[in-house]
Amino acid sequence: MQSESVSPLDNPLVREGVEYQTLKEGAVYITGPGLDAFIIDDGTATVLQACDGRSLHDLCEEINSRYGWDLEEKDVQDILKRWVTYGYLDGSEVKSRRMVKFDPAGLLRLLKPLQHLYGKRWVGISALLLAVTGFVLTFAIGSEIIAGIGDLARLHLIGGPLIVILGYYLGYSVTAFFHELGHALAIRRFDGEVPEIGIQRNFNFYVLSNRDILLTPGDRIWYYAGGLLSDTVWWVGAWIWWILAPGPVPLFLLLPQTVYFLVYAFAPSGSSDMAMILREAVSWKPLVRMRKAPDWRERWKAAPFTQVALEVTRLGLALFLLVFTAVADWLLLVLYVIYRIARKGLNRL
Fold first, then answer.
1. Which residues contact 270 (CB under 8 A, 6 or more apart)?
2. Residues 287 and 311: beta-carbon distance below 8 Å
């Protein structure tokens, strides 16, 4: 008769090598060999640190006795379940989505003068004007960008499309890195901690920061705006670079950033930065992306008209971009579809 497998939750034991670093406002940075790092509350960290191999019942009694809490076994089990999926308990599968990670302290010290830009009204106004400039340039001479990319795609039957797809991804990666760096600089402006920046296995960048120090809506708005501010500067900067010195490098910085702005950046839906800014500024709940939830129609009907109009405008821009590209050069639309399929595959890693 085959014996039942032992669950990591039967006698929870923290995996060897797990480290904890106390941050501000009751946050804790937790990491371990081959594991994704997280910033958690000190209560969860306390439960994890107490996992020394004893039974769940004994663990619960020890925690309640030591800290004067009133947890039940189910409460402790619920806390630990997600840490099993993250690989933090002995006997669970070690699973990390992060491929490269580094401490950005040195880089943030170097860029410290830029931190003082956050929180100033004139910076927000300037960013808005820059975004408008980017939109105007896109609609005025965007066809030249499509023509330039189309020429590269046709340089070689196989090499041309590969150059375009890889160039698009690399250009997106550069702007994605600076997007995350914008968030990091913003949180450092408010004396927060950023223990880690890195690249996931799907090649997306991420920043790990202690957002618990953002105590006011204004602070949180500037955190979310940090990424958009960086995006705006890079977008218009790429336009200027390409206008003054046309070439593949500014072209591959410009194209993905233009797509990002027209399709994603100003979305009051999902978990976009703009949706979070609007949530903090005017208490709008982020719209549910169409078909992402069964009751999305009801949620849209309950949303303010201005919010719905903003999202419809964004969707209209996205549709315009697709139609305009298809009419101007159908090959580029095909390559973008291939790129999106490839990205979805990477996201499953």
1. 286, 287, 288, 289, 292
2. yes
DSSP string for 165-210:
HHHHHHHHHHHHHHHHHHHHHHHHHTT----EEEEETTS-EEEE--
Look at residue 23 in the predicted model and tell me its pLDDT: 93
The residue whose two tokens read 């189309």 is 150
Quick check: 31 and 19 in contact, CB under 8 A?
A: yes
CA distances to 24, 133, 255, 324 from 319, rounded to whole Å, are 44, 21, 16, 8
Using alpha carbons, select from 71, 75, 47 the residue that is nearest to residue 61.
71
Q: Tokens standing for 196?
A: 């880690």
For 215, residues 6+ apart whose C-beta sits below 8 A from its C-beta are 25
pLDDT of residue 238: 93
Does the predicted model carry a pTM greater than 0.90?
no
Strands in 216-318 per DSSP E: none
DSSP state of 72: -
Q: How many other CB atoms are found less than 10 A from the CB of residue 31?
A: 19
